[in-house]
Amino acid sequence: MKKMLPWLITTLLAITLIAVVAVILFNSVIDGGGTQNASAKAANEAADVKTEKLSADKRVELTSTIDKIQTNLVDSDYVAVLGLAFQLDEKSTKKDFDKIKDIQIKPIIIRTLSDMKPEEINGSQGKDKLCTELLNLINPELPHGKLINVEITDYIVTKL
What we know:
Blueprint: H1 5-30, H2 33-48, H3 56-61, E1 63-72, E2 78-88, H4 91-114, H5 118-121, H6 123-138, E3 147-159
Antiparallel strand pairs: 1-2, 2-3
Helix pairs in contact: 4-6
């Protein structure tokens, strides 16, 4: 019996370990409830966020614009002419943004548009995708503060 005790303990530990791993996998991967719980949690967190409605004066104070950006799209037969409005989080961020918008921000916009097809920009989903992509590309370029929102103010895509 003394020779069998270490084997018995090892076997019991192995079975316990396998059972624990099986329960964890079942709850997270196989069940699929983990993704539903994550979605519900994200929805609850989003509902808890208090949005601050800005007055018109405050919004103008924190918004910078770039008008008449013209560039060819990936299909060189098409040209895009855009006007964009950028809402920033603070006045100091807006001042910094205004200083770099011609030398850093405009080239980012032109490169992004140059990689897009006319079909990708059409429709509200295409415009939302463009705004989101610009938001993600421009934020790291800001010295401090952050870009909160990008809106398209003028939009023309036409064939040459």
